[in-house]
Fold:
Amino acid sequence: MTAELNNILPDGKKIYFASDFHLGIPNPQSSLQREKKLVQWLDEISIDAAEIFLVGDLFDFWFEYKHAVPKGFTRFLGALSRLTDSGVPVHIFTGNHDMWIFDYLPKETGVKVHREPIVRIWNGKRFYIGHGDGLGPGDHGYKFIKKVFESKVCQWLFARLHPNFGIGLANFWSKTSRKASVEKDRVFLGEDNEWLVIYCKEQLVREHYDYFIFGHRHLPLDIQLTASSRYVNLGDWIQHYTYAWFDGQVLRTGHLKDS
Structure:
């Protein structure tokens, strides 16, 4: 966990948040259409963005071999490069589908990669930002698998596979995982059963945060935890095309007008 000093947001500037693009699914044609919408949105917000946070699962699968990366996504990578080249900081978080992002994106596009939740403060408002996978109670099976996938041994072994086989195998795993969770992603389980809501409330016992920003859930949520603390889940760009922004005073949520 990293924390920073209070940052003053310049007048007219905003902090943007979005998550769970899952580029690559369900097929190249559909993914390309979604990627074009994403790039258009990034270009539009570049006008007043002070910083941009893309909070995990940018890709449905990503693994960086020493001399190869998954093909495609050139428009998205180009948009990231344009933003950072123009001086707009872009932060990306590794999610459960793209935890094998290493140094390619930072070197090629200039983004900053975060593997754990971070704390940021703007205009006196404290933000707790993370993808959200593996947080809160339950989901012990995934938490075990995450530890395995994060291990250097596992990454070394996977890198020994030929990219054609390794990426194909990973895409199969991803589709299987998505089918198992698709129904749950559509339904709000209630505050007592939403793991990230429980996690946020546990954190508030220890320390105050004005806003908790997570992805992973694929369901847009905006829950008032206390009189002065909110949990916002960013939804996804598969079905909802939702995002959030902070204008220096309050956090707001919205979705693409044409979605």
